[in-house]
Amino acid sequence: MSKLQPVRGTHDLLPGDSRAHRHVMDLARSTAGLYGYEEISTPIFEFTEVFKRTLGDVSDIVTKEMYTFQDKGGEWITLRPENTAGVARALISGGLSQNLPLKYFYSGPMFRYERPQKGRLRQFHQIGAELLGVPEALGDVEIIALGAHILKTLGVADAVKLELNTLGDGESRAEFRASLVKYLSAHLKELSQESRDRLDRNPLRILDSKDEGDRKIIAEAPKLAEYLNPSSRDFFQTVCAGLDRLDLAYELNPHLVRGLDYYCHSAFEFTTEALGAQGAVLAGGRYDGLVKTMGGPATAGVGWAAGIERLAMLVGEVESEAKIIAVVPVGPDMEAQAFALTQELRGAGFCADLAFRGNISKRLKRANRMGAVCAVLLGGEEASRNNVTVRDLGSGDQQEVSQEGLQAHLKRYC
Ligand code: ATP
Ligand code: MG
After folding, report:
1. What are the residue ranges of CATH 3.40.50.800 in the chain?
2. What is the number of the ligand closest to the CA of 263?
3. Ligand 1 atom 10: the closest Cα is on which residue?
4. How far is the CA of 271 from the centre of ligand 1 (A)?
5. For residue 126, which atom of ligand 1 is closest to its CA?
6. Which of 134, 181, 198, 390 has CB 3.0 to 4.6 Å from 139, enough for a Cys bridge?
7. What are 73-124's pLDDT values in tens digits?
8. d(Cα 12, Cα 114) in Å, to the nearest integer?
């Protein structure tokens, strides 16, 4: 190893990035709070089985993207590629289903072995929400409305559009799947290799293929909408009517599918054209069969996850809100006293900074570079009168203030 590098697809979040991430997480968390969603935090690794069972042996995530290893005790462990499985596992292992419905919000790092590019990392971060124990269509409406609310609060609502589809219930899906497989089998030779591989394992995902040739075949394929039974159709109508009533615009996208059997009814995605190929910002759907698949009690669920990196790119730079007060000793003799004053200000809740070295002009330059709002100059002469000089770094105005009245005076800057 010639030079120490971060692992490919991982990123250091330097203060500017951290600020942007924190901004997204904080606004999302507080908005979720308005809907009664409380924060949950599950471990970043789980037994591999947790993801194999939930994501299915055939999904891209399980077949290609998981970070899996055997720990020193011989257990197979996987770094979580997403958080719904962890939440469902927590519901089962913690016996939480006694208290349904449950509303959870989460945020944190996820891990997928993918080809890194802009907006696609190997360690990335998600916020997400899960609503458990609500089989009603209004649950779908609430979870979508929460996603839309967060995007609006972040100021990115205009950069995204909502795409919506329904997968219907298990019965509708099974019928559709059978007829899709029949149709696609008749066109097997024209399909891409990837889609041919998927035909047995995960045929619905073929509908999402980006391959030109596949897309021509898909255009003529049976439509899921035609296979919905009456109750599935009612369910979807209630979801659409609920969104209409909230003035939440959406576009129907029949190709928006989730391959796995426990998904049903709504599938949705907020997408953007502002991030090039990485257009999916927030994606989710209903997963009523998931908890049962994992060996827990049958529990309805609907939720979404959004990539924080992609959201942060849409939001752009987030300014620091810190109102820094720079304390500047006038001469080396005043340094100890200046440090004590700095500490006193911090104790009173001000954000105060004392440079560790430099003459007055260097220190003032540093204060300006940091964006400090004012400088408190502590010189021997004023100190003998128990005073300090406060310089407004915006206007340059100076004022001598008593040390006793300093905190009250500084309040105007905060
Ligand atoms: P994509 O189609 O971009 O691969 P996905 O369908 O794999 O997305 P989900 O599993 O639905 O994504 O995850 C939800 C969200 O998490 C995505 O919409 C995206 O914003 C974000 N996300 C997923 N994978 C990554 C990644 N490798 N790097 C950064 N963000 C990601
Ligand atoms: Mg992916």
Report:
1. 324-413
2. 1
3. 82
4. 11
5. 16
6. 134
7. 999 999 999 999 999 999 999 999 999 999 999 999 999 999 999 999 999 9
8. 18
Take residue 194 and report the two structure tokens written for it.
């990837």
Contact 275, 118 (CB under 8 A): yes
pLDDT, one tens digit per residue, over 382-400 is: 999 999 999 999 999 999 9
278 lines ligand 1 (CB under 6 A): yes
> How many angstroms is it from 310 CA to the middle of ligand 1?
9
Place of tokens 């959004």: 306
Q: Whose CA is nearest to atom 13 of ligand 1?
A: 305
Q: Where in the chain is the domain with CATH 3.30.930.10?
A: 15-169+229-315
pTM of the shown model: 0.93
- For atom 26 of ligand 1, the residue with the nearest CA is 120
Cβ within 8 Å of residue 193, ≥6 positions away: none
Just give the CATH number of 324-413.
3.40.50.800
**156 CB near ligand 1 (under 6 Å):** no
Identify the CA nearest to 78 among candidates 88, 63, 67, 65.
Answer: 67
Contact 82 CB / ligand 1 (< 6 Å): yes
* Centroid of ligand 2 to alpha carbon of 380 (angstroms): 63
The confidence score (pLDDT) of residue 184 equals 94
Atom 24 of ligand 1: nearest residue by CA position: 120
CB 201 within 8 A of CB 58: yes
Q: How far is the CA of 225 from the centre of ligand 1 (A)?
A: 26
Q: Whose CA is nearest to atom 20 of ligand 1?
A: 307
Check residue 8 and give its pLDDT: 96
Q: How confident is the model at residue 1 (pLDDT cuts 50, 70, 90)?
A: low
| Chosen CATH of 15-169+229-315 out of 3.30.930.10, 3.40.718.10, 1.10.3210.10, 2.40.50.140 | 3.30.930.10
Average pLDDT, the chain: 94
Q: Which long-range contacts (CB under 8 A, 24 or more apart) does 88-93 make?
A: 88/54, 88/290, 88/291, 88/294, 88/296, 88/301, 89/42, 89/46, 89/50, 89/294, 90/40, 90/42, 91/132, 91/291, 91/296, 91/299, 92/291, 92/294, 92/295, 92/296, 92/297
Ligand with an atom nearest the CA of residue 124: 1
β-sheet bridge partners, residue 305: 128, 283
**Which residue's alpha carbon is nearest to atom 1 within ligand 1?**
280
Regarding the beta carbon of 217 and ligand 1, being less than 6 Å apart is answered: no
